[in-house]
Amino acid sequence: MADSRNGNARAPGGGVPPKTGNAYTIDVKKFISRARALYEHWKKHSADLWGSADALAIATPPASDDLRYLKSSALNIWLLGYEFPDTIMVFTPKQIHFLCSRNKASLLEVVEQAAHDELKVDVVMHVKPKGDDGKGLMDAIFRAIRDLSRGDGNDSQVVGHIAREVPEGKLLETWTERLKNANFQFVDITGGLSDLFAVKDDTEVMSVKKAAYLAYSVMNNVVVPNLEGIIDEEKDVTHSSLMDLTEKAILEPTKASVRLKAENVDICYPPIFQSGGKFDLKPSAASNDELLTYDPASIIICAVGARYNSYCSNVARTYLIDATSLQIKAYEVLLKAHEAAINALRSGRNINTVYQAALSVVEKNAPELIDKLTKSAGTGIGLEFRESGLNINAKNDKVLRPKMAFNVSLGFQNLECESESRSKIKKFSLLLADTVLVTEQNPESLTAKCSKSVKDVAYSFKDDEEEERPRKKPRVSGSENYITKTALRSDDHVVSKEELRKQHQAELARQKNEETARRLAGDRSGAGDSRSAAKTSADVVAYKNVNDMPQPRSLEIQTDTKNEAVLLPIYGSLVPFHVATIRTVSGNQDTNRNCYIRIIFNVPGTPFNPHDSNSLKNQGAIYLKEVSFRTKDSRHSSEIVQHIKALRRQVMARESERAERATLVTQEKLQLAGNKFKPLRLSELWIRPPFSGRKKIPGTLEAHANGFRYSTTRPDERVDVLFANIKHAFFQPAEKEMITLLHFHLHNHIMVGTKKTKDVQFYVEVMDVVQSLGGGRRSAYDPDEIDEEQRERDRKNKINMDFNHFANRVNDMWQLPQFASLDLEFDQPLRELGFHGVPHKTSAFIIPTSSCLVELIEYPFLVVSLSEIEIVNLERVGFGQKNFDMAIIFKDFKKDVLRVDSVPTSSLEGIKEWLDTTDIKYYESKLNLNWRQILKTITDDPQSFIDDGGWEFLNLDRSDSESGGSEESDKGYEPSDVEVESESEDEASESESLVESEDEEEEDSEQESEEEKGKTWDELEREASNADREHGAESDSEEERKRRKMKAFGKSRPGTSGGGGSSSMKNMPPSKRNKHS
C-alpha cells in the first residue's frame, strides 16, 4: 500500500536546491497567521497545556512510505503546508530555529522577512552540509535556549518536546542524545499541540468537508454497487480484493464520480471489509483474504477513510443480509444511539455528555446490549485520524468548541444469534461511523449522504416459497477444478458430464450477454477500457475570450491551428469549435459539381462516448450532432477537409502520446533493506528482455522492503521491480524445459535498458546445451554418461529448490499487513492442463494457472489474465481436423483478438473442460472469423448487437435448432462433393432448388415436375455418379475428391458461424450440384 501514497504534503528531501517556479511553495500569509496562533496559544495556556516550557523542540523523522500519523508531521503541514522530514524546529519567544538540509532551507527562506516584520520573531537557519553530523549546529541552538531568562530564579530552562515520538534516523538520534545531555528540564507538549489543532480554521474545515465528500461518494458509488452486484450474481470475492478496489477508487476520485485532483487525496487507512463472523471494530483492523459472506443472516461491515490535503474523514456502514429479528433490533438501537451521539456534539458541552447520550439510548431500548457497546464513541479528527485528547468516552470532560471535527464511531461487538447454528453467522458485530463538524448551532454530519437507515442497509433475498437462498459453491483454483465425475446419478436419470457442461455454458452465455449489454449500454464500466480519445467537455476550450477569436476574413469555414479550433459559419456568424469535439469530417461532390463538407461531432451519452462529469451537470444541454456545408469551390472544400483532418490528427497524436507517457507511471523509490533485515537473494540469474550490448553477464535478484532489485556488476545494468507494480507473479520450475524462472507481469511499463516492457523474467539454465563431437553412439550403460545425467538431475533439483525457497520467502513477506492490498502470490503453472499452440510465430507449450493463461519460455511471452477475457471462440473445429484455433476476445473491445493457432485436436476436450470450470464462456465454429470486422460492427452499433442476442450468433446449436424441422430423412446421407453443415427436412422439402442454372430454367416444366415426383434422392445421386463417370470423373483419386470437397466447403461458409454469408449451393439436389462444381 505504501506504493499508492500520494505525497501531497511532503517537500522534496534532497537533490538540487529548488529553482524559481518550484512546485513546492510555502503560503507565507498562512504561515504568519498560524505561527501567530501558535505563539498566542502557547502564551495563554503555558501552564496547563504547554508545561511552562521556555522553548518548543519538534523533530520530524525521515520520510517513510508507511501510513502513520505523527504530531511533528502534523505541525509541519499545519504551519508550512508540507511535511519536512529529517528536520528540527525549535521555537523560542523571539526566534524560530530550523536545522535542515540546504534544499529545505531554500524553501523556508521565504518566511524570514515576513516573520520578522509581522511577528517580531527571527527565523534562524542552521543548514546541515551533506555528510555532516550536525553537532555543531545543535550546540548553537542549545546556546540560544540557554540565553533565555526564566525570571523565576531557576537557571535550568524547560524544553517542550513530543514524548511519544521515538527518534528515527541518524540526525534525530544524535539530536535526542545531545538534548538529554544538555541539562535542560523536559515536558511533554502533546496536549498543547492537540488543543491547538482541535479547532479548525476555514481552510481546514473545507479540506475536511472535501475529504468527507470523497469518502461517502466512494461508499455510495463504488462500495455499495459492487456489494450489490456480488450478492446478486453470487460471485466469490475476497475482502482483500474489495479493499484493493475501494482503495483505488479513493486514490483515483474519478472512479467514484468525484472531481478532486488525485494528487491531493489519499487514504486514511486501508478500507475495511469484514463478514463471516470475524469482526474487529478498531480502525487498525485489516481486510482478510477470506471470501465475502452473504448467506442469510450475514453481516457485512464496510469502513472507508479518505484524506484531502492531509485532512482525514471517515464513514462506516453495516449491511444486513436477510437479517434476523435480533439483528434488526440491535441495528435500530445502534442507529438511535449513534444519532443521539451526533446530536449531542454541541458547542459548550463536555465531550463525555456525547458518550452518555448514546449510552442512555441503549439503556432505555436494549439494556441487555450495554456490555456489548464500544467503550468509546469516536475521536477528534483532522490532520491525524485520531487526535489525542479528544476521545469521546465517559471520562473526557473537555469542552466542545465550534469548528471541531469528530469521527463519531459507535458499535456493538460480539453479539450472538442463538437461533443460528452456523459458526460464520452465529457471532456478529455492528458498526456505524460518520464525520461530524461542531458548529455554533446544530452539528453538521459531513457524511450523512451515505444512508444508514434500515431500509437502505437491510437487504432481503428470501423468496416467498423458500426459507433460504442457497449459496453457490465457491470456485477453487488450481488442479482441484478439474476433479469431476463422469456422471451424476439420481433415482430416475443420468446427467452426463457433457450435458452438465452444456447447461453451465448456457447459464454463462446468459450472464455474459447481460454483462456485455450493461457495459455497452454504459450502465457500468466493466473491465474494459473506458478511456476516450476526446477530451472532456470541461477541458475543451477553443477561446477563453471572444476577443481572442481571429477577425473573420469572410463568412466561410476557417481553421485556427494555433488555438486548435474550427470556425463554422452558422446563421451569419462564425462559431468556434475545438477540433477535439469533431468526430469525423468528410467531403464529396455530386454530379452538379456541388461540393459537400460533412462534420460529425462527439455527442456525450452515445455508446463509447459516455457522459463526462461536466456534461452530467448540464443534462438539459442540447448538443450539435452533425452539420453539412455546400460550396461550388471544390479546391477550397478539399483544402478545408484536409486542414481539419490534419489538425485533428495532430491533436489526437498529441493526446495519444500524452496518454502513452502517462502509462509510464513514476514509480516510488525502492526502499533498500539496509540494516533493517538481510535481503532475500538469488544469484547468477539472467534477465529477459536482456540489456543491450554484445557481452551479457548474469546478475543477482534481491527482495527489499518494497520491491525487487536486479543488478549486474555493471553500474548501468540495474532494474527495480516494485511490489505495487506487479500484477501477476509466476514461478515455473524446470521439468521438460531447460530453464527455471521467476516471471513478473506488471501493471505499468518499466524500462529494462532501452526497452519498454510489461514483462520481466529472471531465469537460470538448469543444464548446459552440449553437442557431442565424437559422432559415435555412447552406450546407455556408460558409467560416465550415467554420472553426467545424475549430476544434471541434481543440479536441476537444487536450482528448483532454491527458486522455490525464494518464492516461498517472498510469499511470506507479501502476507504482511502493508502488502495485503496488493493480493500478490507466486502462481505456479498447472502443467497437466497445458497444450501446444502458436500464439505468435512459433509453436509453444501454453499452460493455465489459477488466474492466467501463460507461455513463459518462448519470447515474446504470453500472459493473459482470465478476468480480462470476454469469451473464447474455438475455430476450425470439425471432424477430420487435426488442429483447431483458439480466439480469445477481451472485455476491452479496443484490444486485438488474441489468436492461438494450430492447437492439436487431442487437446480440445481438456481446453473446453478448463474453460468451463473457470467460468469462461466458449463457442465453436467451423471457420476462422474476421474478428476485427465483427468487433467493429459491435462497437459501431451496440444496440443491434444486444437486440440480436449478443454473443449467441456464435452458437451453432442454437442456429441449427432455430432452422426447424426433423433431420430423420437425411440421417444417413452425405453429399458427394459438398459438405453441408446442417440440413433439415424442411430444407429438403424445398428441393425445387434455390439456385438454378440457365439451362435448367429452360427445361419443360412438365418434365421437371415429373422428375421431382418420380425420383428419390438416391436415384438423383446415382444419376450424378453416372454423369461423373461419363465426364471421366471416375479417374479422380479419393484424395482429389476430398480436396474438391474441402474447396467447396471453404466457399460455403455457413451463416451461423458469423464469418460471412451462406453458400449459394445449399439445399441443391446432388445432380445439380455436380453441374456447378
TrEMBL record:
<dbReference type="Pfam" id="PF24824">
    <property type="entry name" value="PH_SPT16"/>
</dbReference>
<dbReference type="InterPro" id="IPR013953">
    <property type="entry name" value="FACT_SPT16_M"/>
</dbReference>
<keyword id="KW-0158">Chromosome</keyword>
<keyword id="KW-0234">DNA repair</keyword>
<dbReference type="InterPro" id="IPR011993">
    <property type="entry name" value="PH-like_dom_sf"/>
</dbReference>
<keyword id="KW-0235">DNA replication</keyword>
<dbReference type="Pfam" id="PF08512">
    <property type="entry name" value="Rttp106-like_middle"/>
</dbReference>
<dbReference type="InterPro" id="IPR033825">
    <property type="entry name" value="Spt16_M24"/>
</dbReference>
<feature type="compositionally biased region" description="Basic and acidic residues">
    <location>
        <begin position="506"/>
        <end position="522"/>
    </location>
</feature>
<feature type="domain" description="Histone chaperone RTT106/FACT complex subunit SPT16-like middle">
    <location>
        <begin position="835"/>
        <end position="925"/>
    </location>
</feature>
<dbReference type="Pfam" id="PF14826">
    <property type="entry name" value="FACT-Spt16_Nlob"/>
</dbReference>
<keyword id="KW-0804">Transcription</keyword>
<feature type="region of interest" description="Disordered">
    <location>
        <begin position="956"/>
        <end position="1077"/>
    </location>
</feature>
<keyword id="KW-0539">Nucleus</keyword>
<dbReference type="InterPro" id="IPR056595">
    <property type="entry name" value="Fact-SPT16_PH"/>
</dbReference>
<keyword id="KW-0805">Transcription regulation</keyword>
<dbReference type="InterPro" id="IPR048969">
    <property type="entry name" value="FACT_SPT16_C"/>
</dbReference>
<feature type="compositionally biased region" description="Acidic residues">
    <location>
        <begin position="976"/>
        <end position="1011"/>
    </location>
</feature>
<comment type="subunit">
    <text>Component of the FACT complex.</text>
</comment>
<dbReference type="Pfam" id="PF00557">
    <property type="entry name" value="Peptidase_M24"/>
</dbReference>
<protein>
    <recommendedName>
        <fullName>FACT complex subunit</fullName>
    </recommendedName>
</protein>
<feature type="domain" description="FACT complex subunit SPT16 middle">
    <location>
        <begin position="557"/>
        <end position="710"/>
    </location>
</feature>
<feature type="region of interest" description="Disordered">
    <location>
        <begin position="461"/>
        <end position="480"/>
    </location>
</feature>
<feature type="compositionally biased region" description="Basic and acidic residues">
    <location>
        <begin position="1012"/>
        <end position="1034"/>
    </location>
</feature>
<dbReference type="Pfam" id="PF08644">
    <property type="entry name" value="SPT16"/>
</dbReference>
<feature type="domain" description="FACT complex subunit SPT16 N-terminal lobe">
    <location>
        <begin position="26"/>
        <end position="193"/>
    </location>
</feature>
<dbReference type="Pfam" id="PF21091">
    <property type="entry name" value="SPT16_C"/>
</dbReference>
<dbReference type="InterPro" id="IPR000994">
    <property type="entry name" value="Pept_M24"/>
</dbReference>
<feature type="region of interest" description="Disordered">
    <location>
        <begin position="506"/>
        <end position="536"/>
    </location>
</feature>
<keyword id="KW-0175">Coiled coil</keyword>
<keyword id="KW-0227">DNA damage</keyword>
<dbReference type="InterPro" id="IPR013719">
    <property type="entry name" value="RTT106/SPT16-like_middle_dom"/>
</dbReference>
<dbReference type="InterPro" id="IPR029149">
    <property type="entry name" value="Creatin/AminoP/Spt16_N"/>
</dbReference>
<comment type="function">
    <text>Component of the FACT complex, a general chromatin factor that acts to reorganize nucleosomes. The FACT complex is involved in multiple processes that require DNA as a template such as mRNA elongation, DNA replication and DNA repair. During transcription elongation the FACT complex acts as a histone chaperone that both destabilizes and restores nucleosomal structure.</text>
</comment>
<dbReference type="InterPro" id="IPR029148">
    <property type="entry name" value="FACT-SPT16_Nlobe"/>
</dbReference>
<dbReference type="InterPro" id="IPR036005">
    <property type="entry name" value="Creatinase/aminopeptidase-like"/>
</dbReference>
<comment type="similarity">
    <text>Belongs to the peptidase M24 family. SPT16 subfamily.</text>
</comment>
<dbReference type="InterPro" id="IPR040258">
    <property type="entry name" value="Spt16"/>
</dbReference>
